[in-house]
Design goal:
CATH class of one domain: Alpha Beta
Order of helices and strands: EEEH
Structural class: alpha+beta
Strand order of the largest sheet: 1-2-3
Number of strands: 3
Length: 70
């Protein structure tokens, strides 16, 4: 069975790409390139989806860009 999951990609101050799946709490990984990070999170997602207690995870709605003034 194939699953589609949203992935958030960030880059830390050292240039490392941090990836997480907002619908799977605790499902995070990283990589030194985006490709490596995606490969690593793919493995993590499989493990997270096999965890029975995560079967009823929230439905992802979307990401919005928010502009604020300081």
């Amino acid at each position: 069975m194939r699953h589609h999951v949203p992935v958030v990609i960030e880059q830390d101050e050292d240039g490392v790409f941090i990836v997480s799946v907002p619908t799977l709490p605790g499902c995070h990984s990283y990589g030194h390139t985006i490709d490596e990070a995606i490969e690593n999170i793919s493995e993590a997602v499989v493990l997270c989806l096999q965890d029975e207690k995560l079967k009823d995870s929230p439905r992802f709605v979307g990401v919005r860009d928010l502009e604020v003034s300081l």
